[in-house]
Amino acid sequence: MIGAEMMVKALENENVKYVFGYPGVSICPFFDKLIESEIKPVLVRTEQASAHCASGYARAASTVGVCVASSGPGATNLITGIATAFADSIPMVVITGQVKSEQIGSDMFQEADITGACESFVKYSYLIKKTSDIPRVFREAFYIANSGRKGPVLIDIPVDIQLSDGGEFFYPEKVSLRTYKPTYKGHSVQIKKVITTLETAKRPILCVGGGVISSGAQKEVISFAEKYSIPIVSTMMGIGVCRSDNPLYIGMVGNNGRKYANKAMNESDVLIMVGARVADRAVKQPDLITQNKILIHIDIDPAEIGKNAGPSIPIVGDAKNVFADLNKLECSADFTDWLNILKGYTKTRELSEQESTDKFINPRTFVSKLSEKLSEKAIYVSDVGQNQIYSCANYVAKNGKFLTSGGMGTMGYSIPAAIGAKFGKRNREVVAVCGDGSFQMFMNELATIKYNHLDIKIIVMNNNNLGMIKQYQHEFYANRYTMYDLGDYPKLEDIAAAYEMKYVRALNMDELDGKLNEALSSEGPVIFEVKVDPDAFMVS
Amino acid sequence: MKRVYSVWVENRSGVLSKVAGLFSRRSFNIDSLTVGETQDPTISSMTITSSGTGRDMEQIEKQLNKKLDVIKVRTFPEEDAILREVILLKIKYGRNDRREIMEICEVLKADIVDASSTHLIIHMCDTPEKISKLLEMLHKFNIVEVSRTGTLAMLKCSDGDN
């Protein structure tokens, strides 16, 4: 069997349903053999989008996403997408074609050292040198990507390897890697320490990160918190772990989070961090966090523990396992009083937030209205910029998913990730919420949406500028504004017409409800333009 | 604070650059680095000496362990290990220097391993401190070329060893 057939067979063995990609000479043998397979290739409009599609797919379907590109510029275009997935620990297998084996290193046409270039943003990478290695490498790549701390794995395959015979196809059942054995079970002594710490605690807080979603541990984590009435805050990547209407939920922490959520975290005496990096965006001055509190840090990646803050009780393990074990233990702690104090903070805050303008749409009200109207299991994909902060702070979480580029903050993520998410969950409502800046980074993918008949609602919070930059220049550069003005282009109505999509626009609060209903209830893709005040700055 | 990392890695192409890349990407220092095959030809041994804060040292070990090509990381403070370096020095000498150079070599137990009527090559294998001492003492002569290895390290023997 030739290499290209082996690649397809390997993907079939991994139950891959879709590959997102873009062709080129060095990957043509693979796409040629894919014609005979049930696996559906999805042609995007630029390679970076294929990586974001794979990421959105992986997050929506809770499996490994696959993207494929050619050598040289095809491969280098993927890099931002790979780095974005790496920063958020998203399981992905990235396949790139490469020039002929004997030409590697001679600067051939469309040659790029992609394994070298991606070294610091992949979990692992392979450059295949023997056709018969393909089944083993694919088996290992899927295993590595989707176990331990998940992440992207890159497989670079020279075109001659794809075309040459590799003998009989045998897909290994087991992976044996002497250097890779993730720890899933938490240490029992450490787990007991958590319970004894809770017994003497007065103001504990549970901070949930993206690791809880990645581990599928929502149920275990929430029931642990409910058992003792421990208030819950989340990082940006942890949005959606807890329903917004859960009485324990306080909100998102961090420099763009809710003030009262940060206050709650600061005032706590025991902080349980789970599946979160304790990075600067979530925790101001992480190194000082242990000064007045006991930090319990639970993560599957031992290197995260102690990286930014020295924990008092470190637990290395998979959140699902650790919390299942924690739930087996008993103690008499109950923190209802502490929870009530925190609920008092949130109430005063909500009252002062009822500000609005009649000329524009208030983005905070908009996000909460939108997410309330969405169906129970809808997938909300947020982009990067002011819109992300509005989305994160005001999103009403139900049983759906909230996807965003948390670690890397990659503008343009929402449209391609929403495409991937829609392929991952065909029956769910999917919305991509972006700003006019991020929309323009990937509006070429509207063609992919239309061509594949994907029912995705694209919401553009349009303020005709790069609001985040403008706000930053307002705060830190004494209002010396530059490089932020996007002008009133493109005309989104014309863009919608060009892609034969329905276009809806809301200009002010009076018409918001009606227009929102119209946009959400229309069949097929819609571009919904929401006019936002260009001079508004966000307050968290 | 200086520490020695004795790292066993898969003997594959590209592994050295992955490990070296890890240090540069996370801005950890490498004071010296040596690589060679072990008794098992599928395993290479890397000896890295590094300096930094306590947290850096802990992170280096954890990040090394996270690399999928790393089989085993052992780390110890310099004083717990036997350390060796090798140096080769080529010196252009004159009639008046020759005797003094030979005396220095004798005192520090360095060998003259090659010579011509104008040049000689000195070889020494010793602790990093001794090697630096040799360099310091020969500094005033006309050193034409220096080639020095990184530090090799092995944890000192103890009665509890397997």
Q: Count the E strands of chain A.
A: 18
Q: Helical region count of chain A?
A: 21
- Measured by DSSP, the beta-strand proportion of chain A falls in 15-25%
Annotated CATH topology of the largest domain in chain A? Rossmann fold
Task: Quickly count the domains of chain A.
Answer: 3
Residues in helices of chain A, as a percent range? 25-40%
CATH H level of the largest domain in chain B: which superfamily? ACT domain
* Rounded mean pLDDT score of chain B: 92
In total, how many domains does the architecture of chain B comprise?
2
Poorly predicted runs of 5 or more residues of chain B = none
Topology at a glance:
The complex is a heterodimer of chains A (540) and B (162).
Chain A: H1 3-13, E1 18-21, H2 28-34, E2 40-43, H3 47-61, E3 65-69, H4 73-87, E4 92-98, H5 114-117, E5 124-127, H6 134-145, E6 152-158, H7 159-163, H8 188-200, E7 204-208, H9 210-215, H10 218-228, E8 232-234, E9 249-252, H11 259-267, E10 270-274, E11 294-299, E12 313-316, H12 319-328, H13 336-352, H14 363-373, E13 379-382, H15 386-394, E14 401-403, H16 414-424, E15 430-435, H17 436-441, H18 446-451, E16 456-462, H19 467-476, H20 492-498, E17 502-506, H21 509-521, E18 526-531
Parallel strand pairs in A: 1-2, 1-3, 3-4, 4-6, 5-6, 7-8, 7-10, 8-9, 10-11, 11-12, 13-14, 13-15, 15-16, 16-18, 17-18
Helix pairs in contact in A: 1-2, 1-6, 3-4, 3-16, 10-12, 14-15, 14-21
Chain B: E1 2-10, H1 15-25, E2 32-37, E3 43-51, H2 54-66, E4 70-77, E5 81-92, H3 98-108, E6 111-115, E7 119-126, H4 128-138, E8 142-148, E9 152-155
Antiparallel strand pairs in B: 1-3, 1-4, 2-3, 5-7, 5-8, 5-9, 6-7
